[in-house]
Amino acid sequence: MRSSIFSQHANRGAAAGGGRSSQGSDATTNALSHEQELAAERENDAILRALGNDMERVQNEARGLRQEVQEHNALLDALGRSMGVAVNGVRSSASRLADVMQRNGWRQNLTLAIGIFVLLVVIYYIIRRASTATSINASIPPA
Q1: Would you say 4 and 36 are in contact if contact means Cβ atoms under 8 Å apart?
Q2: What are the tens digits of pLDDT across the range 36-95?
């Protein structure tokens, strides 16, 4: 499948050096060559159209990816700001806790923490017993 540039050079060479006996075969060769060139052009056009369609699809996907990246970057920026606020909150809480520990002493704070823990455990067991007693009463058929 040669381009038309090459066939023109071949035709010139045949016309310049060819005799009368080869002109008939040159005409059929040129006709076949021309048909092959047209077929090759059509094939190349189809390939180029397909390539153009593929490029357009890739370009659309790249645009979609770019938009997704921008959205994720915005989310990451918001997360970074939120984390900064959280870090500042933890620092201030730790600072206040250190102040309380210095002011009241660690024994008093430890006693308070243990008392709160025991109170929560007692409340948990009371609620658990009440729920088990209710489920036991519900499973006993009335007499």
Answers
A1: no
A2: 899 999 999 999 999 999 999 999 999 999 999 999 999 999 999 999 999 999 999 999
pTM for the structure as a whole: 0.40
Give the position of tokens 């540039």. Answer: 5
Taking the alpha carbons at both ends of the chain, their separation in whole angstroms is 101
**Taking CA 20 as the corner, what is the angle to CA 15 and CA 25, rounded to the nearest 5 degrees?**
75
Q: Residue 18: what pLDDT?
A: 47
| Token pair for 63 | 């645009």
Distances in Å between the Cα of 136 and the Cα atoms of 106, 127, 143 are 45, 14, 15
Per-residue confidence band for 122, with pLDDT thresholds at 50, 70 and 90: very high
Residue 97 has a CB neighbour count (10 Å cut-off) of 11
Q: Which of 33, 37, 34 is nearest to 45 (CA)?
A: 37
How far is residue 133's CA from residue 140's CA, in Å, rounded to a whole number?
11
Q: Which residue has the tokens 């050096």?
A: 17
Structure tokens at 78: 């918001």
